[in-house]
User: Fold this.
Amino acid sequence: MFKEMRWGDSGEVCCPECKIKNKHYFISSRKQWSCKNCRHRFSVTSSTPFSNRKISLVKILALMYFFISSPQGQSANEFSPQLGATLKTVFHNFSKIREVLFETMDLTPLKGLVHIDCGHFCGKPRRANKRKKTDSFVVNNKLRSRKDGIVPDKNTHPEYWNIEKLKNRRIVLAMSQVGQSSPDVIGSNRTIAFIIKGENASTILPLIKQYVSKDAFIMTDSGSAFQPIFRELGISHSKVNHSVEYMASDGTNNNMAESFISRIRRSEFGTYNGMRPPYFAFYAAEFVWRNDSRHLTLRQKFNDAFKRIFTREVSKAFCNYNHGNHLGFEYIK
Assistant:
């Protein structure tokens, strides 16, 4: 099955070293091929994210199946005893799949109606050691905008560890295209997400200019970062004031971007119990794929993910990770 998904069912395979496609010599005892041209030995996972694997193809298949079939993601901690593999093995292989989804994200400009919003993740402060009197300002933040759960208020969270945790905060910019490709798809059918440094116009506007079509119609909330969209970019723009209403009387809302962000947030605390900032772009790309493929059957999802994985090269971030070969940089705009 792996061979057919990667090279087809013609019996010919492609040598990853010299790129010659032929009926190369198959070594059945090793489940490998020997190239007729350059004598290079290779397997079905050579020069792919699963290159130099130490687990069987059956376990890789199980990994992919459980990752793909879980609508809110699959916890490596939960799956490792089921697979009979270590937590590190499961986590690194899941992470390789996320990296592929990040590298194969469709970045063609969005068209038609586009919902845009930002969400804050990671760096969540802990409660103070000393219990303090809670005033109405803190209660409002807790129940309404939840800003106190994102940015520590120095009057209530002055501890140094909360200020340090704030450095891990990351912001997701979500842009969701609504109902463009098929009338059967309800809601958004394509999403683009980026990790950005700050929720401000100088960061967000260049990304909107590059990844949203000029003739699109954008809907956002009334945040200051979105105010200059029409003035600076000339793209039609409507906004809703969330301090007053969730949807304006003319139908303006950004619910598709909001719902995308809420899915990541539920998985951050409910499935993954936290997402590490250096690899947060991979998690965002995972939920872009889950959001865009939610209308597909399980077989269609599996085939799509399989083809993406086996057209990519060796993982940059997780190949030899346990030997100190870390990514060393962050995918952040």
